[in-house]
Specification:
Bound molecules: fe (iii) ion
Shape: globular
Number of strands: 9
Largest sheet: 9 strands, mixed
Length: 354
Amino acid sequence: MKKLQFLGLLALSTIIFTSCFSDIETVSSEPNKKDEHTKVVNIYTDRHYDVDVELYTQFEKENGIKVNVVEGKTQELLERLEKEGDNSIADIYFTADIARLFQAKDAGFFQPSNSEILEQNIPSHLRGEDGSWYGLTKRARVIVFSKDRVDPTQLSSYEALANPEWKGRVAVRSSANVYNQSLLASIIANCGVDDSEKWAKGVVANMYQAPSGNDRDQVKAIYAGKADVAIVNTYYVGKLLNSDDELERIAGEAVSIYYPNQEGRGAHVNVSGVGIIKSAPNKENAIKLIEFLSAKSSQTKLAEANYEYPVNPGVKASEVVQSWGDFKEDTTALSKIGSLNTTAIKVFDRAGWE
Ligand code: FE
């Protein structure tokens, strides 16, 4: 990944922008919060997509505002924000899943904002009421099923995966994963704690093995004939189908996507999104950048690159994603789902979901 660097700030502070998987370097003792000569916006991100960098470069050209990127792992960035406190140079925190956005919000890292453009471009259930965070790309957590062994008429809802007919046939990753925590939080929001706990116990009883691996591995378990259905994020199917690895492509071909709960509340959706940092030295520029990322042309690029859905209702998904068909999404406010994260973790524990 391309390294972005400050233009005129290096004399005063040393920030090293690192590539995808290396650890981030620490800011010097005197972080330069504002440069009088260069307009900047500073973004802390745990994403490592080329499309993000392309869009930042385009934003720089169009607006004359330099985008400084600090990449790191989620926990590293959160610890860094904690350590830096009000001295942080960060304007924006960019991460995946409402559970992570809420972790930052609960830690007091965000501040409210106002933007008519963002209110227009992003549906209300995909952003914070107070404008402290905004979803920028959307994914659904769905059921995928074996084309060979499952007739889709046997499928209906997340809830039905707890039924005995699925015994030994369900593949799903561990409860430590935020995608699962948010899915369970959405079930709690819609069905209450007691029914959600029964559901989680039912799914545990139906797992083909104790949870292990990531979403792609669950699809591979179906291909290998170990499981018949799996719970995964939609974009992983796109990634598998377009993988450089032939085995991944074959695994992707072995499954179809099923959007659950279409007769009821709809399929659970989540976002990758941004929060505006409380001490943001360049808040106005931050809002400008988020507005840019929510606009039609950026939304098309973001959605194309990662097989996600645009959050902007005026933008179409990529062809591959469109080929999976339209679906009804659960419009429960993600802020509610984020606030139920701790409850979800406790329910998983009680249900014995490893
Ligand atoms: Fe992911």
